[in-house]
């Protein structure tokens, strides 16, 4: 049985990606939630995840004692282990494009990450409006995301980025959380894609469980004092 170590569902964007991928693909796994308390060396988080993953971070996938860490590496491992689930597009060029945009997501959009940390529970539209007004880098990141999604939805005719659900959609799922919770402006076709993604059973299950956590972590929420 696969075991996936994750952080708080409300906050952990990197954990969301492989969890949603596994759920939506119907791949059975056990979940171990390692609560964020802090990220210092003596934190309970580090004491718990350190013996599991050499990176000392979540997510980490354990398969019969073998550990894979980093979201994109986990996705590639699952795609190879379960080829029948077709986690990447089957067409070679579509697959290369899916890998390209997933890698861009993996390494890029730092302005969006910095201005809009993932928080599924909170209504952060006012925070988002101020960031949108004051941070040109954020506006540039969102414009690039809109361009990527628009091209893919037009080329592959939806409902997901490459027609059927794929690793690319899982990689961008936390971006959808950010755009919606911070109320960042996007065109209507992009809003429709985000609504379709959130309605997928795997994504909807993550959102529901994130809302149930009721765990306020002040260091994750510099924009408010309490829930």
Short description:
It contains 10 helices and 4 strands.
Helix count equals 10
What is the first-to-last residue Cα distance? 36 Å
Work out the count of structural domains: 2
Strands of the largest sheet, in order across it? 2-1-3-4
Largest sheet: 4 strands, mixed
Approximately what portion of the residues adopt beta-strand conformation?
A: 5-15%
Looking at the structure, the CATH topology of the largest domain is Glutathione S-transferase Yfyf (Class Pi), Chain A, domain 2
The CATH class of the largest domain, by name, is: Mainly Alpha
Calculate the mean pLDDT score and round it.
96
Q: Helix amount, in percent?
A: 40-55%
What is the H/E string? Answer: EHEHEEHHHHHHHH
User: Structural class of the secondary structure composition?
Assistant: alpha+beta
Number of strands: 4
Rg computed from alpha carbons, rounded to a whole number of angstroms: 17 Å
CATH architectural group of the largest domain: Up-down Bundle
Q: Would you identify the regions where 5 or more consecutive residues have pLDDT less than 50?
A: none
Shape: globular
Outline the structure in words.
The chain has 227 residues and is of the alpha+beta class. It has 2 domains: 84 residues, Glutaredoxin (3-Layer(aba) Sandwich); 119 residues, Glutathione S-transferase Yfyf (Class Pi), Chain A, domain 2, CATH 1.20.1050.10. It is built from 10 helices and 4 strands, in the order βαβαββαααααααα. Strands 2-1-3-4 form a 4-stranded mixed beta sheet, covered by helices on one side. A hairpin with a 2-residue loop joins strand 3 and strand 4. The mean pLDDT is 96.
């Amino acid at each position: 049985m696969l075991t996936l170590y994750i952080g708080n569902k409300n906050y952990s964007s990197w954990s969301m990606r492989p969890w949603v991928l596994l759920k939506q693909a119907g791949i059975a796994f056990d979940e171990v939630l390692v609560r964020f308390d802090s990220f210092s060396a003596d934190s309970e988080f580090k004491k718990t995840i350190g013996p599991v993953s050499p990176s000392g971070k979540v997510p980490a996938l354990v398969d019969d004692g073998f550990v894979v860490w980093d979201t994109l590496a986990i996705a590639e491992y699952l795609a190879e282990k379960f080829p029948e689930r077709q986690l990447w597009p089957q067409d070679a060029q579509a697959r290369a494009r899916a890998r390209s945009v997933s890698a861009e997501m993996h390494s890029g959009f730092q302005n969006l990450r910095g201005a809009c940390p993932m928080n599924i529970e909170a209504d952060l539209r006012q925070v988002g409006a101020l960031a949108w007004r004051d941070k040109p880098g954020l506006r540039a990141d969102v414009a690039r995301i809109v361009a990527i999604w628009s091209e893919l939805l037009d080329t592959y005719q939806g409902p997901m980025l490459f027609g059927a659900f794929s690793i690319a959609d899982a990689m961008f799922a936390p971006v959808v959380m950010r755009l919606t919770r911070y109320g960042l402006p996007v065109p209507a076709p992009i809003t429709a894609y985000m609504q379709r993604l959130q309605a997928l059973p795997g994504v909807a299950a993550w959102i529901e469980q994130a809302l149930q956590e009721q765990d306020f972590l002040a260091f994750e929420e510099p924009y408010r004092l309490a829930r």
